[in-house]
Amino acid sequence: MAEATRSSAIDLELKRLERRVDELLTAVQQLKEENRALRQRQDALVAEKTSLLHRNEQVRNRVEAMIGRLKAMEQSA
Description:
single chain; mainly alpha; 1 helix; 0% strand
């Protein structure tokens, strides 16, 4: 009888461990997916930042050119 009880306890413990391993595998899978999505978002944000910096440089150059033309017009007037 004690052997059957011990076997049953071991079976229960194995089932509990199996459920826990399954839960951990699910959590790992979710974390991998979240990590992938975050990396993708980071890449998009880095690309957007680069684009904005480039556009900002272009605008600054255009404004500086306009200021230069305005100063030239002012001096010639």
